[in-house]
Amino acid sequence: MLPYETIAAAESTMGRNLTAAEALWFRYSARMPDYLLYCHNIFFLFVIFTLVPLPLALLEVRLPSVLAPYKLQPKVHLPTSSFFQCYKDVMRVFLLVVGPLQLFSYPSKKFVGIRTGLPLPSAGEVAAQLAVYFLIEDYGNYWIHRLLHGRWGYEKIHHVHHEFTAPIGFAAPYAHWAEVLILGIPSFVGPAIAPGHMITFWLWIILRQVEAIETHSGYDFPLSPTKYIPFYGGAEYHDYHHYVGGQSQSNFASVFTYCDYIYGTDKGYRYRKAQLAKIREQRGAGGENGEANGWNYNEKFE
């Protein structure tokens, strides 16, 4: 809730006119409690989990031939019931874990200094903070994910997420409730270290989940804008991790590839890429019957 009765009062305090974005923010949030603003996260997550994976899911079910050239595991075709069941399981964890966590974690967000007032941050400030959030979360997620591939962590918790050896967008948040809680920790570290505006926090939540859905999509589109992000892993990179499954000691990073490269946990992936490149060269792009359009040559796992 803003401490101004009118836009004129806000402008008088700030000593300048509000920008168009600030005026819009004033009209929306001036009388809204900060707690309610923070709880917008629940709505955003629900919309993202529901709508972002939907277009590809519909195409895969109704018109699979349209997406076939880009499918990373072309021999795997899930029935419609698998998509519905995955979404139902995600929504159950959302209602029982994610939603309540958002409702009760507001004091921590207030404590670290995430603000809701004026002025709004500049585009440069937002971009810099988001970059910090992604880098910090990626590093923390790498080590937690790697630990979850230990025997106890995998058998008790992480195996749930790996039920989809050929991931789909709806499966990005599909996991054991304990994993949802554990992996939520590095997502909060960045905003705690470099707290910003609530709008920046919203963007962080939205972009991180959209990124997770993209990397779990099961498709590698050559013109995707994410291919221009330095060190970005993407769908192909993470799809290999799911393809290898419980044996995987490769490609633990959630967003970027630098941790796997530094700590040597991308060797199996790079070996497989080199193998497939030779196969495609020998047989022609697409192989025989499209066999080389994905992770289908599995003589060796690393």
Automatic annotation (TrEMBL):
<dbReference type="InterPro" id="IPR050307">
    <property type="entry name" value="Sterol_Desaturase_Related"/>
</dbReference>
<feature type="region of interest" description="Disordered">
    <location>
        <begin position="282"/>
        <end position="302"/>
    </location>
</feature>
<feature type="domain" description="Fatty acid hydroxylase">
    <location>
        <begin position="131"/>
        <end position="265"/>
    </location>
</feature>
<dbReference type="InterPro" id="IPR006694">
    <property type="entry name" value="Fatty_acid_hydroxylase"/>
</dbReference>
<dbReference type="GO" id="GO:0071771">
    <property type="term" value="F:aldehyde oxygenase (deformylating) activity"/>
</dbReference>
<comment type="similarity">
    <text>Belongs to the sterol desaturase family.</text>
</comment>
<dbReference type="GO" id="GO:0005789">
    <property type="term" value="C:endoplasmic reticulum membrane"/>
</dbReference>
<keyword id="KW-0256">Endoplasmic reticulum</keyword>
<keyword id="KW-0812">Transmembrane</keyword>
<keyword id="KW-0456">Lyase</keyword>
<dbReference type="GO" id="GO:0016491">
    <property type="term" value="F:oxidoreductase activity"/>
</dbReference>
<dbReference type="GO" id="GO:0008610">
    <property type="term" value="P:lipid biosynthetic process"/>
</dbReference>
<dbReference type="Pfam" id="PF04116">
    <property type="entry name" value="FA_hydroxylase"/>
</dbReference>
<protein>
    <recommendedName>
        <fullName>aldehyde oxygenase (deformylating)</fullName>
        <ecNumber>4.1.99.5</ecNumber>
    </recommendedName>
</protein>
<keyword id="KW-0472">Membrane</keyword>
<keyword id="KW-1133">Transmembrane helix</keyword>
<feature type="transmembrane region" description="Helical">
    <location>
        <begin position="35"/>
        <end position="59"/>
    </location>
</feature>
<dbReference type="GO" id="GO:0005506">
    <property type="term" value="F:iron ion binding"/>
</dbReference>
